[in-house]
Amino acid sequence: MQSCIHNPMPNLLSREEILEAFAADRSLAGALMVRADLSGAELRGLHAPRGNLVGATLDGADLYGANLDEAKIVDATASGTKLGSAHLRMTDMTNSSLVNADLTGADLFRALFGHADLSGATFTGASLKGAYFAAARFRGADLVGVDLAAAVLVGADLEGANLTGADLTAADLTGANLTSANLTGAEFEGATLRKVKTAGAVMRAVKNWSG
Questions:
Q1: Torsions phi, psi of 20, nearest 5?
Q2: Which stretches of the chain drop beneath a pLDDT of 70?
Q3: Which of 40, 107, 129, 200 is the right S-S partner for 180, CB 3.0 to 4.6 Å?
């Protein structure tokens, strides 16, 4: 059970201080962790909603089930990071790199990922409803069965991504690159599909495509 802190972490924390707080089961809600190097850290179930991790290094860290709702993780690197079942609702990861990250079953409701690199990342079963992915890269990403309803994917690069069974109802894919993507059984009711590139895309049983 997380300890209750009335004035959560007012000072900029080092890696050692963050790991110490985590080991003591203390909440890091609102903590200042700017440019912290947490590469390879074991932080399963971390409680850090509204935390400031701008410029942080999270490569290879285990953040399975972490609560990072409304956290600011702009310009961070999180390649190969484990974020399965993590809470990332309204989290800002603009311009961050999550190459080959695992976000299986994560909740990214209305999260911000503009210009982020999500190439090779796994989102199977995740909820990305209403999330913002303008100009983001999803090359080769696994998006099987994800909820992308009302998501903004303007100019996103989804070349070679697997969107089998994904729900893109009312999503905005204006100018998106779906070259060689697998769209089998994906739902596009009410989606904006202007200037979408689909050369080589697999479109078997696609639902309500009007591009």
A1: -65, -45
A2: 1-10
A3: 200
